[in-house]
Specification:
The protein is mainly alpha-helical. The chain has helices at residues 10-17, 29-40, 48-57, 61-85, 91-99, 102-136, 169-184, 186-211, 248-251; strands at residues 151-154, 159-162, 231-233, 236-239. A hairpin with a 4-residue loop joins β1 (151-154) and β2.
Length: 255
């Protein structure tokens, strides 16, 4: 049991930092900021926000952004304190190893692996659908066997259903391409990420600038047609209000 909670001394980590096998610090403020912004602006920013506002929250969705922003501030402060206490590579895994021990570090390490695996798969799948929609503009499409994952979640039945596809080829291709860039080097991949983030931010600012002329404050009433309470998991309400507080005809204005 003592071994499970054995902690790695900070002095050992600092010695490793000064060794020949250390990771070089090649990322600057712009690249590090771009990594954070790039993780925030995902594939669903122009799609899922509208779906959630129309089907789940109404205009009150903006409160979710406020809550998420406050949460991000506290998370950033926590990581800033961790980084100042343990100024070595390894993120939350290293911090846990130094302060809580091997068991906590092992759990957090696997959590990070699963988190990045699921997030990367989701983003690649979303990019694939965007790419296929882009192909549709030119009147072309991929074969059914290469359009989607073999199984998909059906929100109506709550079950996994067969899609008729063998694999999501665009998702596999974009994952392989990003892997090649990452293997090339951290500086090269960070520079590529910065370029992509600049493009994404430019698109977001363009949408805001153009969309500002189409804002209709009348659509903000009622502000929370589904109520301010409710906890749901994969579309299933666990607690709080389960249905709209206004007739469906009034919700069509959120589309």
């Amino acid at each position: 049991m003592n071994q499970l909670f054995a902690r790695k001394p900070l002095s050992v980590l600092l010695d490793e930092l000064n060794g020949e096998q250390r990771l070089r610090r090649v990322l600057g403020p712009v690249q590090l900021s771009s990594l954070g912004v790039g993780a925030i602006i995902g594939t669903g920013i122009f799609v899922l926000v509208g779906v959630a506002a129309h089907d789940r929250t109404g205009p009150a969705l903006m409160l979710s952004f406020v809550a998420a922003g406050v949460t991000c501030v506290f998370a950033a402060l926590c990581y800033a304190e961790f980084a100042s206490m343990v100024p070595v590579a390894g993120s939350a895994y290293t911090y846990a190893y130094v302060t809580l021990g091997e068991l906590a570090a092992w759990i957090i390490g696997w959590d990070l692996i699963l988190e990045y695996a699921v997030a990367s798969s989701t983003v690649a799948h979303g990019w694939s659908h965007y790419f296929q929609d882009f192909l549709a503009f030119f009147g072309t499409s991929l074969p059914l066997s290469l359009r989607n994952a073999p199984f998909d979640f059906d929100p109506n039945s709550g079950l996994l259903v067969a899609t008729g596809s063998w694999l999501d080829l665009p998702a596999v291709v974009i994952t392989a391409a990003i892997t090649v860039i990452l293997v090339k080097g951290i500086q090269e991949s960070a520079t590529f990420n910065t370029a992509i983030v600049i493009l994404k931010v430019a698109v977001v600012l363009f949408v805001i600038a153009v969309g500002a002329f189409y804002v209709d404050p009348d659509n903000w009433t009622p502000f929370a047609p589904f109520g301010f309470t409710g906890v749901s998991f994969f579309g299933t309400t666990l607690a709080g209000q389960t249905g709209p507080a206004v007739p469906n005809t009034e919700q069509e204005s959120y589309g």
